[in-house]
Each structure stands twice: as structure tokens, then as C-alpha cells.
Amino acid sequence: MGTEAQGRTGRDTGRPLNPLAGSSLLPGLTLSCSLACSLAFPLGARAQTVPPEAGEAVLAELSVTGSGERAGGPVVGYRAARSATATRTDTALRDTPQSIQVVPREVLVDQQSVRLTDALTNVSNVQPGGTIQGRSDTYILRGFRTQTYAIDGLVQSPANSFQPTQRDLANVERVEVLKGPASVLYGQGDPGGLINIVTRQPTLTPSADLTLQGGSFGFRRAQGSVSGAIPSVEGLAARFSFGTQNEDTFRDYGGPENSRHFFAPAFFWNPDPSTRVYLNAEFTRQHSQYDEGLIAFRGRVPLDNVRRYYGEPWSRYYGESNAITLLAEHDVNETLTLRQAINGQWGAFDVFATRATGVNAAGTSVTRRLTEVESIYHSIDSRTEALVRFEDPFGFRHTGLAGFEIVDGYRHPFTTQGAATSVSFLNPIRGSVPQVGTLSLQSDLRQKLSLFGLYLQDQIEFFPGLQLVLGVRFDTANQLYFQRTPTNAARPPEQNLTGVSPRVGIVWRPVEPLTLYGSYTTSFVPQSANILNVASPPPETGEQVEVGARFDLIPDRLTLSGAAFRILRANVAASDPVNTGFSIITGEQRAQGFEGDIAGEILPGWKIIGGIGYLDAEVTKDRFIPVGNRLPAAPVFSTSVWSTYQFQGGPLRGFGFGGGVTYVGERFGDITNTYKVGAYARLDATVFYEIDPTWRFAVNGRNLTDRRYIEQPFNTFNNLPGAPLTVLASLTARY
Fold first, then answer.
1. C-beta separation of 559 from 596 below 8 A
2. Using one digit for the tens of pLDDT, what is the confidence trace for 105-120?
3. What is the pLDDT of residue 535?
4. In sequence order, what are the beta bridge partners of 685?
């Protein structure tokens, strides 16, 4: 269909057709049964991943987007056309009144990405913000740090300050970044935005893939996925994905290598045309060194030796994370679809390591302490939704969403510490023996969070080319944040929270290739700070005003998007200078700037993805931090571009090559702006050959100029350097 038809389907958010629908069904029932197969956003599942049985008719409307793409499903090439992250309905990206960028699986394959950080490099104004000593991932989105993300639309454990394992990409279909506050649909969250990882879903058609990778610094990895119907049960399909890897890394640990093992089973059951059931599970086990990276001194981080390690060979970290999600959907009729999702998460981690605590005035010695941490967490999330589609008496078309969410989370880290020997700042020599018997209590933290949220949303199409999105969420929460220390054993009162998170957005398409939009969105995070004589301190809040545009440079193939934004973060807590162990609410921070992103295919076989961003992120109000201080790890200017070309015919058919450059400006490492890390430009490249549809061989080079730089600043003692020149070879077999 042409672009006019595509414009009409923008209003049909949540109204895709089911490719399993047979020609014998009545048209109304066919439409009804099709609705939620592509609305199964909480699991990233889409009906198009379950192809029609032989002889069944596929309705022509499946081609309304040109490729039959559905939100959360596979993307052909580098350009996604639809998403459900911003609305929880299958909506065209150009009909979303908020910036959202999608990194499809094909980009991950071409770049041979093995970290979530590698995928997010392709998105403007997103930077890695630290690995929390090699344990997890944090990111800077539009200037603000976030330490958690969503999987298939469900935010990870709300009580956790970070995930205990690094994210594996073996079962990732696409990585989506919703820029700016997102509390209207997701509850508590950081003001910079939301990272949503959409997983691969089962298919009735048998398929399988296996990739073997090997490269620099002892890196070895195997990952694969197999999918198909289960013959004994009608309409039941399953997919099993796995990833396992080991590496020495370029860091000079002198101890065991790092390893991670990941397994993800997924099931889809279609017992009748109007009912769908999804079950997704993920299990991760991670063993790694506790690595704080390099240390800042006198305003900079020395880069003369990026292998320098201030820990000990016996330092260790073990983390495990587990999650199971069950989703059921039912089409009551052609107007109404009901969904119920239940998600359970649990896990643990333990640490035994030395930690740097200071550098002497001469810059010759690093003091350390011995730390042991044991932590557990668990949470459950229940979400109930109703999706309704109707036309009002004025002829305006509505896609309404109503739902409520109940969340209960808990975590309990127990930390002890003791003395450890000092080491040289420039030449740390390993060899100290841990004195386990001298460990004493540092912190015993118990955090409980219970949250109830009620949300409403309406996507209104007044006429083709003009849409309005209205949304609001009401939250109540109860939280206990009790941190027992050697000097403070007083149990604080439980905190109560009520909040309202509105959103309004407008989308206007004055001419067919161009879409303009504007929006106002908000966010909140319950305070974990202990405020003296205040039982229920106000939550940290964020609000954003954004205007943007999307322009199809080549219809259905290449899209350029841009946005300008301003985010205010208020009620930021800081340490109480008078009452030790308590905090006060004193701060306000602002991030404003603009960005542009491009994704798609310039010519047949020539693909591109990239972004450019300008960011002004600073403290605007505080009693202790100087106004005007820059927010940590947020560069003023950053950009990245990646492009590949694959020959489409002739003797070189199947051969391809590509490359990219990433530039990140200088950044301050902490909120007090005591030190900076320098700007860097990194050059990457790839060559690959698809022998036939079954076999693919690739060699990727990263940091080809062997540049020394800090990739992830976190604080004075935690600055992770980027890897030196790295080569990675891979062989993929597909069925």
C-alpha cells in the first residue's frame, strides 16, 4: 500500500490483523481476533512471529506498513517502523509524540554486539555510565543516570538500585529507547528515559541459529536459538535461546577469567482465534572480577596504563538474576481486548573484594578496605489492562487504554568491611592476604516497596494527519528504607507516597513525508533518603517539554528524526550537613538540548544508523553543590554513525563491509566536578560474507586506532577504560 494507507493505519493503534486468521472467519471476528497479537507488547510478542498454516488466507491489510512489521517483532534492515514502548499499543513511530529510537537485531548482528552498551551506542544522547564494578550496567539518558531497564515492557525489580548481572543479547529482538520521563505508563522511573529490551518470540515455523565467536583477550562465546511448533499441542510454539561466554579481558586481574551463562525459554499458545498466552523466562549466572577501573587524581584519570588494577586476584563477584512472565490476552469482541500480565523476579549477588578508599597527597599510594556483600532481592508485578477502540459521534477515532498495576519489591544487602593493605598508585603490586576475621558491620539495608498504579490513555485521531495523545497515572506507594549502620540502628517510619503523572502529546503531519510533534511528560521516583523528622518526603520528580520531527528521506526505507527538549529534575536529596546519617531535599537539575537520529537503507544493500546530540546538563539549585556544575558523565556533544554495504549481485554477492565512528566529548566524573575525563573518537569496522542463507562469517575490529580513553566514569575510584584494539571473529549457522 502507498503512503496514504499508511497514514490511515496510524490511527489504528492496536488494530493489526492476525496472520493466523482463516478466510472462513467473519470479517468482524477476524478483526477482533487480530487485535492483541500485535498488542502483546509486555512480552514483545507479535502474531506475525507465528506464521499462517498452509492454505490459510492472509488478509491484504498485513502490508499496510510496507513490510508487515509489527511492534516488538522482527525488523528487516536497520529501520523500525512501529513500536509499543511509548503507548503500549502497536503504533507507528511517526505517530508517537515522544522521541523513541529502535536498534534492531540486524544492527546487533552486523556490529557483533556482545554488550547492551554496544547496542545503545547507536542512539543519540545515550552514554554508558558505569558497570558498578563489573557487575551490571548503568546509562546516562539525556544527562540523567538510570540503573535499570524494562524487558518486554515490564520494568525490572523496583526495589533494586541496579540489576545484579549484565544483560545478555542472545534473545534480544530489538533495543528501544524512549527518551524523557515515562511514568504515565511505567510508574516510577528516571527522568532521562526508559530502555526497553524486546525479546525474540516463538514461531510455528521451525528455525534455528548458532553463532560461535572468538577474539582478543581470550574472548570466547557461543549463542543460539531454536524455535518451532510443539506437535503434541495445537497452536503451541516454543523458543529456547542461550548464550555463554568466557573472557580474560584486557584488564590485569591476575585471577580467574570472567564468565556469564544465560538461558531463556519462551512459549506461545493460541488455543482459539481470540486467545493468546505467552510465557517468557530468563536465567543468568555471572562470575566476574570486582573491577573498579582507574582512579582519578588531581582532576584527571591517568591513561598511561589502562590495564592497571587495584584489586587482588582473589577478589570475586557472583550474581544471578531470574525472571518469569506470564501474559494472557483475550479479544472479547472487535472493540475490546483484555490482557493480564504477571511477572516474578528474584536473584542474589555476593562480593568479596578490596575497594579503593583514597589517594595520598603525593599521589604515590592508594588506601583500600576489604569488603564483603551478600544481597538478595525479589519482586512481583501484576498488570491488568483493557484496550478499547471506538469512533465517537463526531467521527473521531479513539484507541483507549485503561489499566492498573500492583508491584511489590524487596531487597536485603548485608555489607561488612575490614582493613586491607595499601598499594602503589602507579604500580599496584598484588599479594595481600584477606583478613576475613576482622570484618565488621558496615551496612545492613532492608528495602521494601509496594506500589499501586492506575493509568488511563487515549490516542485520538481527529482526521488523518492530526492526532492527540492524552494520558494520566495515579500512584500510591508505601516504602521502608532501613539502613542499619554501626552508628545508627534507629528504624525509620515507613514512607507513603501519592503522585499524579500526566502526559499530553500532539502529532501533526502537514505533508506526507513530514511529521511534527510536541509533548509534555512527567516522572517520579520514591525517595530512598532518610529525612530527619519527615515520615513521607516528597518523591523525586521530573518533567519534560519536547518538540520534534520525523522526515522520511526515502519512504519506507530511510528516516531522519530530530528533537529539542528540556527536562527539570526536582526534589533531589543530598547529605544533611548537620545531622549525620540523614539527608535533606535541596536540589534541582536541568538538562536541555537537541538531537538527531537516522536509520534505514540509502540504496539497496547500503544501510545506516546513527545519532548526534548536544546536551546542556547542570545543577540549577542546591545548598551544597555549586549552581552551574555539570551533571556527571554527560558530554556536551556526542555522535555516532555506523554503515554497512552488502553486494546484491554479481561475483561478490553476499560479501559486505562497513564501519563506524563514535565521538564522545569530555565529561565530568562526579557531581562536584572534581575531575574530568577527556573526549575520544573510536573507529570500528567489519567485513562479512554470507556464503548462502545458511552460513555467515564475519570479522569485526573495534577501536582500530588503539585509542586510550575512559568509556564509563562513575566516581573518583570507578572509571572504566575503553578496550584497546580488539578483533572478533564469528561464524553463524542458520536454519
1. no
2. 999 999 999 999 999 9
3. 66
4. 659, 701
